[in-house]
Write a structure and sequence with these properties.
This protein is mainly α. It has a single domain (4-215), classed as Methane Monooxygenase Hydroxylase, Chain G, domain 1. The protein is 88% helix and 0% strand. It has seven helices and no strands. Helix 1 runs parallel beside helix 3 (82-107).
Length: 217
């Protein structure tokens, strides 16, 4: 029979790895703003540097998820919520994948399309909203170790931002369809917006999983 101390130690190790993974996704999502600004400024070097950082972050996120998988395999039945922890890790990893997709699509769009005032404003606001969502997710994971009761309130705040993100995404797509005549650029911008919306959905799904973990603590 495992001791309570062993369980606490195992929980602490797995939560630490999950927090590292989430922090790296947050860094990656923040880099999207740098890609956006570099495309606006037509600075190819900065675009490529940011995309490289996002790609490296994606690799690190995968490494953290693999490390968490190994940790959970080692502790076996010591942690009752190991399936929820693993599910959360995969959902967070998916966010990193979508980040790469957004960056790539922005990098190959004609910056004249992205510089249109209405599109520039809405796109930048959408990017800031997804960063806030990932930040809330990071807060939730950190709260697992500090104050699990706080996780539910943060999840509620995250849900509100996710709903606002959905409305912002729909409005942006309408503007893109109205203002961008070139089919290629319209498709790229629409796809980038859809990837951001998918990131928001994954944040919400991961938040649900983290809430389940918190309730079980």
């Amino acid at each position: 029979m495992f001791s309570g101390g062993s369980e606490d130690k195992a929980r602490g190790k797995t939560q630490a790895v999950l927090l590292d993974e989430t922090r790296k996704v947050l860094d990656s999502s923040r880099e999207l703003v740098n890609v956006f600004k570099a495309v606006i400024d037509n600075d190819e070097k900065k675009v490529n540097n940011s995309i490289k950082k996002i790609g490296e972050a994606e690799d690190e996120v995968e490494a953290y998820r693999r490390a968490l998988t190994r940790e959970l395999a080692e502790v076996g039945s010591l942690l009752m919520n190991r399936e929820d922890l693993l599910k959360t890790a995969y959902e967070i990893e998916e966010i990193a994948g979508y980040t790469s997709g957004v960056a790539f699509r922005m990098s190959i769009v004609d910056n004249k399309s992205l510089k249109k005032p209405a599109i520039k404003k809405e796109f930048e606001e959408l990017l800031n909203m997804i960063i806030e969502l990932v930040h809330k997710l990071n807060e939730m994971v950190r709260s697992l170790a500090i104050n699990p009761d706080n996780v539910i309130q943060i999840a509620y705040d995250l849900q509100k931002i996710e709903r606002e993100t959905d409305l912002k995404y729909r409005n942006l797509v309408k503007i893109i369809m109205k203002e961008i005549a070139a089919a290629k650029d319209a498709m790229l911008l629409k796809d980038a917006a859809e990837h951001i919306e998918e990131m928001a959905d994954r944040c919400l799904s991961a938040a649900d999983s983290i809430t389940i973990i918190a309730i079980g603590l």
